[in-house]
Write a structure and sequence with these properties.
heterodimer; A: mainly alpha; 50% helix; B: mainly alpha; 0% strand
Chain lengths: 86, 222
């Protein structure tokens, strides 16, 4: 029997893990979804995104951080971005 | 109950708050923070490599967050420009920057003698949430995954021309560095964002960045 059978499977790569964590992105609240999509799925600079979303750079930063904070702290079974005071 | 009142109770972070050991300063020889700083300085000193990285990122990459990988609401207007490699790295950097911002904000509130109880409670919430996540609190996107993503993307982005430390394996050290000195950590992240996410050069951070180490400024893309 090959020793390779007993070798532990490597962990999934970072991108796969992220894709899995974002599987219900479509269910996110509109603003959070747009913040995510524009921040990480476009070539736009953050000041440009802020302008297009009608925010100041500071307001955009705060909104983006709040979105990320909700996502980071969501339990695996939670909605990642339900409305919160944070 | 309204949706706005859904998440008012703080999770129990107690198991993740005890101090871990690790090198807490980028000045400590052999520390992960020191090695990450060195990567940054090496890149600053390699304009040809920086140019190669920029050229790579200028090419649209079909992999990142295409609809097969991540569902996107088709009503969201985008896709006029294809995303590039650097988006993954930018995402990892932004997660860490969020922790830095929270820790810095908590420090500022605590240091202000006029802070009211509500503000102090908020500072505790921000601090404990960031610390717990950095120390492995299990959430949908964990610090472990973030560290893995950061390490893998740094290798990809640097075109294997720079030795990238084992960030995932040494993530506890990275966590303690961020917790101990979030301002320095934010400064490091900002430089990485400038190097590897050229379309987000103006990526904004809450912290005021101190001068780069050794007084060297990035000599690269204008």
């Amino acid at each position: 029997m090959s020793a390779a059978i007993f070798a532990p499977a490597p962990p999934p790569d970072g991108r796969s893990c992220l894709h899995q964590a974002l599987k219900d992105l479509v269910t996110w609240p509109e603003q959070d979804r747009r913040l995510f999509v524009e921040s990480f799925m476009s070539h736009k600079s953050e000041p440009q995104i802020a302008h297009e979303m009608g925010m100041t750079p500071t307001g955009f930063r705060q909104a983006q951080r709040a979105m990320l904070r909700r996502f980071m702290r969501a339990a695996d079974t939670d909605m990642p971005a339900t409305a919160s005071t944070l | 109950m309204s949706a706005l009142a859904v998440r008012v109770t703080q999770p129990d972070y107690s198991a993740h708050l005890p101090q871990l050991t690790g090198s807490l300063s980028w000045r400590a020889p052999g520390s992960l923070a020191n090695q990450l700083k060195q990567v940054q300085l090496d890149l600053f000193d390699s304009p040809a490599l920086c140019a190669a990285i920029a050229a790579q990122q200028d090419q649209a990459h079909p992999d990142f967050m295409q609809t097969e990988a991540i569902p996107v609401d088709p009503t969201v207007a985008l896709r006029d420009e294809a995303p590039n490699h650097a988006s993954y790295l930018k995402f990892a950097l932004c997660l860490l920057a969020t922790c830095c911002d929270d820790l810095i904000a908590a420090q500022k509130i605590r240091a202000n003698p006029e802070s009211r109880p509500r503000a102090l409670a908020e500072a505790e919430f921000l601090h404990d949430g960031a610390v717990a996540w950095l120390r492995g609190y299990p959430t949908r996107i964990t610090f472990e995954v973030c560290a893995r993503l950061l390490e893998q993307e740094l290798r990809l982005q640097s075109l294997d021309q720079i030795e990238i430390p084992n960030i995932e394996a040494r993530r506890a050290e990275l966590a303690e560095f961020i917790i101990a000195d979030p301002v320095q950590a934010a400064d490091l992240l900002k430089h990485y964002a400038t190097l590897f996410a050229p379309n987000a050069i103006e990526m904004v951070f809450d912290s005021e960045s101190p001068e780069p180490a050794h007084g060297r400024a990035p000599a690269m893309r204008g």
